[in-house]
Amino acid sequence: MITSMCGLICTDCIAFPGECRGCLAVEGMPYWTMDVTSNGICPLYDCAVHQKGYHLCGECPGLPCQMFIGLKDPTISDAEHQKLLKKRVANLRKLEKGNNNQ
């Protein structure tokens, strides 16, 4: 299982590993970013890694921030988005807990 820096499970995605090897492997530039950003970098990756020096969003004490909440897959409903947000935060908290126990 490969988890992205924002808590999505890369290996659950239909684009993995073909179109996308995961945001960590492609340094925040998965295939979809060219459609939604001017610089081709996921805004969550850019914030966490480039601006704050974190490896994952889960390291940020502000999780879930407005950017995290606002970045929504346009193909899912608001209810699905809310459910997915909770799951992603839980994934990140679990990763952080595991990293802190090492």
What this model shows, in words?
The chain is an all-alpha fold. The model has no long low-confidence stretch (mean pLDDT 91). The longest helix is centred in the last third of the chain and has 23 residues. It is built from 4 helices and no strands. The protein has one domain.
Assign a percent range to the helix content. 40-55%
Largest sheet: none
Q: What's the overall geometry?
A: globular
- What's the rounded overall pLDDT mean? 91
How much of the sequence is in beta strands? Answer: under 5%
Q: Kindly report how far apart the N and C termini lie.
A: 19 Å
Radius of gyration: 13 Å
Order of helices and strands: HHHH
Structural class: mainly alpha
Number of strands: 0
Count of individual domains = 1
Spans where pLDDT lies below 50 across 5 or more residues = none
Q: State the helix count.
A: 4
Please sum up the structure shown.
The chain has helices at 33-36, 43-51, 66-70, 78-100. With 102 residues, it is mainly alpha-helical.
Characteristic key phrases:
globular; mainly alpha; about 100 residues
Topology:
Elements: H1 33-36, H2 43-51, H3 66-70, H4 78-100
